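The records we work with from here on pair a chain with its fold. A complete example follows; check for yourself that the lines match position by position.
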Amino acid sequence: MFYIDPIYMIILVLGIVLSGGAAFLVRNRFEKGKKVSIASGYTGAQVAEQLLRDAGITDVSVHEHKGFLSDHYNPMNRTLNLSPDVYRGRSAAAAGVAAHEAGHAIQHAQNYFPMWVRSAIVPAANIGSNLGPWIVIIGIMLGAGAEATAGTGLGHSIAVIGVALFAAATAFTLVTVPVEFDASSRAKKYLQNLGIIKQGNEANAVSSVLTAASLTYVAAAINSVLMLLYWAYRAGLIGGRRN
């Protein structure tokens, strides 16, 4: 049974540890960054608006959004949504997060290629993450798998489709990594060039928060790759018997 497969359980536990550790690090770094005031006195909303103006972007609006660290840029309606701690905050943490999200809006305006790729594979990634594993399981039930003679039959074909769909979800997590690191890099550059933060304690606090946030996407990508390898193995596409 799949739910007692020790390999699956190891990957599942590892994923929980990685994602949980990354989430804890983000919260910890953000709380510390909230204690570092920035000399410019900008709120997160003002930071985002200033970065957008400097980049010549006039069709993106900044809004307050409920939730803790629920900050995100929505390219569909061109809105930059900031959580209350960020929208109203006048700290290095608030400035860093707000600038990061503004970085996504700038990526969108400049047609940053990895972001374009990520947007293009969203539909397939959503289907793959939800249905991919189940399609692999159906294929295995119909005769595919590492223990079977691989390469032929309806079960094998169905399993391959499931793995391919899940691969799209994995591709999404992988391309997200450079998108997030680039947004953080843009944020730090803009914040310093515009004089919103100062070198030293303020800049270090911003860098600490953004680095921790980026690591959550690295953890998600690692977990997705491991799961993809697992489903490929169970489908008989790697390892297993080859006749």
